[in-house]
């Protein structure tokens, strides 16, 4: 992506990157830059970055042919234009993007949210609390962005450094006083947040995840910890003290840090009062104050999300009653333990839970409010970490009364190898049900549910688009469930006999 500047006319690489070595010139003055050689325009800086599949250093010749006036790279290159050599071109690129955008984070309070689970929900809760307190708050999360003027969905956790810089600039232009940014481990490992001065960091939890990307738990935790390096000296952190890995971080955080807890000791705590399928009530305690909070979203994990968001609001001086109003205003978040109510006599929830840990939390939360059977529809396709698949099967077998393995894609093309991997986690594979067609699987599970039961549709969560036969087709578990429920609730007779259910033990 090409990033041009509006607030700043030029950026000196000599000043911005003092550790860099510039060859072929005394300084390189940048007015716009590009990280893709194909889209590089005349007089732009081309940034050569090493990606997971390609090395930008191999495309320098194409960039100069398109008019690049200088190159930023990690090694010396045989080219006729000046070259700025840095140790980490991804980090340098992010810093340049922020500088070209006018360094908007220096004039806003930017809150970074990271963790294995709960990032998106915490982002929305923080935004709601601060807006309830009268602030104008921009947000970037996996559900989309809010730049203070309009909101748009997108399909990423954390955008590229160029898009993030442009988004923060627009937030500032639109009068945002605060910005909440979801920071994925991939974005942190690729230094997309470099150049941003964070006023606060919220860490929800640190589990063993994304090992297919990071290679090891150590690398994954190291990537998450990078966010602390973006905190300004006057900033603060909020950490979940009930999470072992997060608690370990507390001793390593140099800035002021606040801990939250539901079961252990924390500076901001909660205790559950009552919980039903439609809502839960808990007591939120901060200092000498304790107030009740009633949320439409249920589960211990949501209480943790509320605690983290509340801590951020309280540090910013928001009074506890306003914090509670902000928490209670968020009645649902697409694909995050989203309750579907169409008049049916059983519970239906759609949750993104696509990891063993997230699926276990979702099933545990629903088990506590389910008087009948707990039915789980879930899937794992080839793009997932293969090591997760048996664990998903183990969690589903132990946590649900009836588990149905399906595809995570609309095409139902999840390979038999994927299904076999999931079945490896079952102690009794013959009890597992397999139905590759996801729509049919959801409809069968709903048709199987009786009064008092609960159906969890897991693995996809929020609406998204998938490509099938070169067409973009919507895949929305919520719409699939609602369409079936509305029709079933208005029909005295079944629509048809339903799809064929396969028993699929590993042979």
TrEMBL record:
GO biological process: cell division; cell wall organization; peptidoglycan biosynthetic process; regulation of cell shape
Family matches, as Gene3D superfamilies: Mur ligase, C-terminal domain, Mur-like, catalytic domain, MurE/MurF, N-terminal domain
Pathway assigned to this chain's UniProt record: Cell wall biogenesis; peptidoglycan biosynthesis
Residue ranges constituting the Mur ligase central domain according to the UniProt record: 113-312
Keyword hit for Repeat: no
Top EC class, one word: ligase
Annotated Mur ligase C-terminal domain residues: 335-461
Main location: cytoplasm
Presence of keyword Cell division: yes
Family: Belongs to the MurCDEF family. MurE subfamily.
Xref: PANTHER family: MUR LIGASE FAMILY MEMBER, UDP-N-ACETYLMURAMOYL-L-ALANYL-D-GLUTAMATE--2,6-DIAMINOPIMELATE LIGASE MURE HOMOLOG, CHLOROPLASTIC
Name this polypeptide is given: MurE-like ligase
Organism of this sequence: Blastopirellula retiformator
């Amino acid at each position: 992506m090409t990033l041009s500047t509006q607030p700043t006319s030029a950026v000196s690489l000599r000043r911005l990157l003092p550790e860099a070595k510039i060859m072929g010139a005394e300084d390189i003055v940048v007015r716009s830059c590009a990280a893709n050689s194909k889209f590089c325009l005349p007089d732009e800086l081309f940034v050569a970055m090493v990606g997971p599949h390609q090395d930008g250093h191999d495309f320098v010749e194409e960039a100069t042919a398109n008019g690049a006036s200088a190159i930023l790279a990690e090694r010396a290159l045989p080219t006729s234009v000046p070259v700025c050599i840095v140790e980490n071109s991804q980090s340098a690129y992010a810093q340049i993007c922020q500088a070209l955008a006018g360094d908007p984070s220096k004039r806003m309070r930017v809150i970074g949210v990271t963790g294995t689970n709960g990032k998106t929900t915490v982002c929305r809760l923080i935004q709601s609390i601060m807006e309830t307190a009268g602030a104008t708050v921009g947000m970037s999360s996996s559900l989309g962005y809010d730049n203070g003027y309009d909101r748009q969905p997108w399909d990423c956790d954390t955008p590229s450094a160029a898009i993030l810089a442009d988004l923060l600039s627009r937030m500032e232009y639109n009068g945002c006083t605060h910005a909440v940014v979801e920071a994925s481990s991939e974005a942190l490992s690729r230094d997309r947040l470099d150049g941003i001065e964070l006023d606060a960091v919220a860490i929800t939890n640190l589990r063993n995840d994304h090992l297919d990307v990071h290679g090891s738990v150590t690398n994954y935790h190291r990537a998450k910890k990078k966010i602390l390096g973006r905190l300004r000296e006057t900033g603060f952190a909020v950490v979940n003290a009930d999470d072992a890995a997060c608690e370990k971080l507390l001793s390593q955080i140099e800035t002021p840090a606040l801990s939250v807890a539901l079961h252990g000791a924390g500076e901001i705590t909660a205790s559950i009062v009552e919980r039903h399928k439609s809502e839960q009530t808990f007591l939120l305690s901060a200092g000498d104050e304790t107030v009740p909070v009633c949320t439409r979203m249920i589960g211990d994990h949501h209480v943790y999300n509320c605690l983290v968001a509340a801590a951020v609001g309280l540090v910013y001086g928001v009074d506890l009653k306003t914090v509670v109003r902000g928490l209670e205003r968020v009645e649902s978040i697409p694909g995050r333990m989203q309750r579907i109510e169409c008049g049916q006599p059983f519970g239906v929830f759609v949750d993104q839970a696509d990891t063993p840990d997230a699926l276990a939390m979702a099933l545990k939360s629903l088990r506590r409010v389910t008087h009948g059977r707990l039915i789980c529809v879930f899937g794992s396709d080839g793009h997932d970490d293969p090591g997760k698949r048996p664990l998903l099967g183990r969690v589903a077998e132990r946590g649900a009364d009836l588990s149905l393995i399906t595809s995570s894609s609309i095409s139902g093309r999840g390979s038999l190898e994927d299904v076999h991997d999931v079945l490896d986690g079952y102690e009794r594979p013959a009890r597992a049900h397999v139905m590759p067609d996801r729509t049919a699987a959801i409809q069968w599970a709903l048709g199987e549910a009786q009064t008092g039961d609960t159906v969890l549709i897991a693995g996809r969560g929020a609406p998204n688009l998938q490509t099938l036969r070169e067409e973009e087709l919507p895949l929305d578990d919520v719409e699939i469930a609602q369409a079936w429920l509305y029709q079933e609730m208005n029909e005295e007779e079944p629509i048809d006999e339903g799809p064929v259910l396969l028993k699929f033990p590993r042979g």
